[in-house]
Amino acid sequence: MQENWKFHHASIIVRDMNEAIKFYETLGIGPFPPTIGPEGVPLSGQTVRGKQSDYTMDLRYAKGGVGGLNFELVQPLEGESIYKEFLEKKGEGVHHLAFVVDDLDKEIAEMAERGFKVIQTGQTARGKFAYFDTDAVGGVVIELIQWASQQAP
Fold first, then answer.
1. Separation CA 20–CA 2 (nearest Å)
2. Residue 110 lies in a domain
């Protein structure tokens, strides 16, 4: 792992956000306020496998859920996305691990040099993100995030 990558969260893909929130809150993980989606901030600049996409999702984020770790729940809503692909192929489960970086463009170039392609991108007012095709071994995707103000939500 890169020394300049700072762990941010583990993300779980779910079919039903309300049911998932109830379940994880019984484990003591939560609360999960709206972050991105119908009740949160909008997305822009989305691409999936190099093509423009208008995917939507309901994303909820629990800061410091268990042992200080952050957890994210994602329910794909509309459009093509790697979240929807995952749900259709594998069902619910851990999808990605996210790390904060200072320079996303630099990290994208370095990941490409190592043979890892960008499979999805997007941005909000808070920052931009990219996912990489790292799931060949272990089944987990890596997400890199660059905050607009270097401040995590």
1. 32
2. yes
Confidence of residue 37 (pLDDT cuts 50, 70, 90): confident
Query: What is the pTM assigned to this prediction?
Result: 0.90
* Domain membership flag for residue 18: yes
Q: What is the SS3 assignment for 50?
A: coil
Whether 152 maps to a domain, the answer reads no
29 SS3 class: coil
Domain count across the chain: 1
What tokens were used for 128? Answer: 């931009």
Give the pLDDT of residue 127.
92
CB 37 within 8 A of CB 59: yes
| Averaged pLDDT of the chain | 90
**CATH number of the domain where residue 139 is located:** 3.10.180.10
Residues 6+ apart with CB under 8 A from 134: 116, 140, 141, 142
Q: Residue 108: which domain range?
A: 6-147
At 66, which amino acid appears?
Answer: V
Average pLDDT over residues 59-77: 87
In angstroms, the CA 10 to CA 129 distance is 14
Tell me the C-alpha distance between 123 and 102, whole Å: 15
Name which of 68, 66, 49 is nearest 120 in CA terms: 49
